[in-house]
Amino acid sequence: MKRSTLLFISLCLLLLLSGCQGAAANEAAPVLSDQRAQEVQIRPEADAAATLAPVSSPGSEASWPVTSTEQEEEDLPLGYCISIRDNLPCSIDLDGDGEPEIVDMTTQPGALDGCPRWTVSVKKGAQERTFQTDILEDMPFDLWVGDLDEDGSAEIFFHGDAASDDYIVYAWRSDLTPILFEPDDRLVRTDPDEGGSDGKSPVFSGYIEGFEDGHIVIEGVVDMLGTHWGVRTFAIGDDGIIGPVSSVWSFEEDDRYLTVAQELTAYGAKVARDPGEAFTLTAGEKVYPLASDGCARMWFKTGGGKTGVLLLTPDEDGMVMWRIDGAPEAEFFEFLPYSG
């Protein structure tokens, strides 16, 4: 065989071997890449640690995964509260003595009608305190704990649907002693013995929207020139009583309006400001309610963008809800959207 022929055959063999090695390397590369990706997914030490931390934040109603009796006990949140509804019973140190209490919700027969009602309990060792609410067992509820006023001891908050979205709010100290609310037309006295002095009550008509900066955000119904849902912030005062922080119930701005039926006097003012210069609303004008103090004033804006406030007085005879300049409110508007 000629030398040139041998050289040609050797060169072909060399190229063939190189190609096989390259193909093998190319087939192995994706396998190694997949293995590395799987290792990253199944060994995320940082992510695993993060899942053990509280996931709720101030104002959030998300459940707190570390409050269950089967999980590690955590300190009370300061300045806000967290929902424990989905983690009952839960173990948490309510009074700051280093020993956890067990907080739970059960149903027990009502004293008057025997119907099962939601009852909150706080148990420590052999001692247990309970408080029965007016909420029936098949109605929705929520339960929060936290050190809202940052005094070193927990507060417990509860709201439930008494009937047809008529929510009521309860508040207690760590030993289930009721925290009273300042007098307001939304106070609900289910038992004369439950109320405190000066008309205060442990039950408040409203819905807890959340907690933020040491405040309770409550949504409630305001019946003034119609039925409106308003939001207002409350806090525990130095006297231990829950009272309003914001001066008005703020309404969500939307396309709902009242149509003026005859001339009436209004006063220039922005929301929560005192009445200014008087002006006249004329028949046909649209009035969009913005806020109310719940007792005498309704702030609004007109279709033209002007802001003002209407002054109202409650009807002493009980024939109508409110009067404007001594006349029934219904005389000044084509329709008032009261519900119920």
Characteristic key phrases:
3 domains, 36% strand, elongated, 11-stranded antiparallel β-sheet, disordered N terminus, mainly beta, 340 residues
How many structural domains can be distinguished in the coordinates?
3
What's the overall geometry? elongated
Strand-pairing-aware structural class: mainly beta
Kindly, what is the distance between the CA atoms of the first and last residues, rounded to a whole number of angstroms?
111 Å
Please write the string of helix (H) and strand (E) elements. HHEEEEEEEEEEEEEEEEEEEEEEE
Strand content: 35-45%
User: Ranges with pLDDT <50 over ≥5 residues?
Assistant: 1-71
Largest sheet: 11 strands, antiparallel
The residue fraction in helices comes out at 10-25%
Structure summary, number of beta strands: 23
Q: Over all CA atoms, what is the radius of gyration?
A: 33 Å
- Total helical elements: 2
Average pLDDT over all residues? 80
Characterize the structure shown.
With 340 residues, the chain is mainly beta. It has helices spanning 3-42, 45-50; strands at 82-83, 90-92, 101-109, 116-124, 127-136, 141-146, 155-161, 167-173, 203-205, 207-212, 215-223, 227-236, 242-244, 249-251, 258-259, 264-268, 278-281, 286-292, 297-302, 307-311, 313-314, 322-324, 327-328. The chain folds into three domains: 1-43; 82-246, no CATH class; 258-332, no CATH class. Helices cover 14% and strands 36% of the residues. The longest helix is centred in the N-terminal third of the chain and has 40 residues, at 3-42. Mean pLDDT is 80; it is low at 1-71.
